[in-house]
Amino acid sequence: MKNTAILLCVTAFFVACGQQPEPVAQSEAETETVEVGTEAEIQEIQWIHDDFDAAAALAVGEGKLIFIDFYADWCPPCQTLADEYFPRPDYQQFLSGVVTLKVNVDNEPDMAQRYSVSSIPTLVLTDAQGNELDRVVGITGSPEEFLVVLEGLGAN
Length: 156
Known about the structure:
The protein contains seven helices and five strands. With 156 residues, it is an alpha/beta fold. The chain has two domains: 1-33, no CATH class; 42-151, Glutaredoxin (3-Layer(aba) Sandwich). It has a five-stranded mixed beta sheet. The chain starts with a helix and ends in a 5-residue tail after the last helix.
């Protein structure tokens, strides 16, 4: 606001003197800034839905492990993960290192049974062949605390 008032006064002065003012560079507040850094470079994770074979093929091709989110549409903690945790930049960064697979236990009961899922959400880390490496059942603590738990998957 102050800059605008000064600019108007300077412009009025030059107009009164019969001269055109030189263009004024935009202030930092008026210029568009583009964030540069790891968070800006992270793309939203694309989940594979209910298709282990597609996830396994991608895991083999990219040399990554598979992160399986067993969930149901009617499950409030599952919705919390999907809506509040997974979209966060820190979770996106973590998930970029694995192939992400969402398995709806209502659509894929055989897959849930294969991994002995008896409670949801259940998050399972597997190799590309589907061999379970580790799992977390439920969510606990703050999003930051829970991310530490997920980052520890497979460390045993």
